[in-house]
Amino acid sequence: MTKSRGFWYFLEAGAIFLFVAAVGIGCAGMVSPPVSWIVFAGLLALHLGEIPTARRRLAGKNLSAARIIVKTTLFGFTWRLPVERGVLDR
Length: 90
What we know:
There is one protein chain. The chain is mainly alpha-helical. The chain is built from five helices and no strands. Helix 1 (5-27) packs antiparallel against helix 2 (33-49) and helix 4 packs across helix 5.
């Protein structure tokens, strides 16, 4: 089942929120800063690990490697999957 564009944009906003929250809760003193940076690094590692899959699956979509790397790093599968399925253009 293909979700609407709004659904995928909502998930992309959630991905950015997780990155900001991971650092923000450490800076606000809610958890120790090293813990928040570890969470941030974990999220980043998950998204970076998805880059080979994204490059392989989006090879025929006429997207630059730089665009795939940046958007996958920021949004992960919430960007790759709808572009792959044709729900989002780029």
